[in-house]
Design a protein that fits this description.
Layout (H helix, E strand, L loop, with lengths): L2 E4 L4 H17 L3 E7 L5 H20 L4 E7 L3 H12 L3 E5 L13 H9 L4 E4 L5
Parallel strand pairs: 1-2, 1-4, 2-3, 4-5
Organism: Cellulomonas terrae
Pfam families: Usp
InterPro entries: Rossmann-like_a/b/a_fold (IPR014729), Universal_stress_UspA (IPR006015), UspA (IPR006016)
Length: about 130
């Protein structure tokens, strides 16, 4: 059991991580952070990502939350989240969403939509606070 969170080093990703930490505290469970990367990502990006993930691990540890960080390469973001949620028997999946224009709100991102429809558990979506 646990909470699966999709993470990117963006305001949306940080909002999702924060919400996952709060949910994990309330439910007394662990957080599994899923980071999907492209296999063709430049080395500089991978280095920056590893540095950011060290901060993520430190944030989770300082919050006192049991956690695991999974860096997955080559997969589809939605598949990575759904398969991880199934594998760990997740209680919840947490996603960060971008703010959109009124017209854009009619169209949800393809990955977010797939996770909402296909996740084996409830999905919590969050937006970052005002900039």
């Amino acid at each position: 059991m646990g909470i699966v969170v999709g993470y990117l080093a963006t305001p949306e990703g940080r909002a999702a991580l924060g919400a996952a930490i709060e949910e994990a505290r309330q439910r007394d469970t662990r957080v599994v952070v899923v980071v999907s990367t492209r296999p063709d990502a430049p080395e500089e990006q991978r280095g920056a990502l590893e540095s950011d993930l060290e901060q993520v691990r430190a944030d989770l540890a300082s919050a006192g939350v049991d956690h695991e960080v999974r860096l997955l390469s080559g997969g589809d973001v939605a598949d990575d989240l759904i398969l991880t949620a199934e594998e760990v028997g997740a209680q919840l999946v947490v996603l960060g969403l971008r703010r959109r224009s009124p017209v854009g709100k009619l169209i949800l991102g393809a990955n977010a939509q797939r996770v909402l429809f296909d996740a084996p558990c409830p999905v919590l979506t969050v937006k970052p606070g005002p900039a």
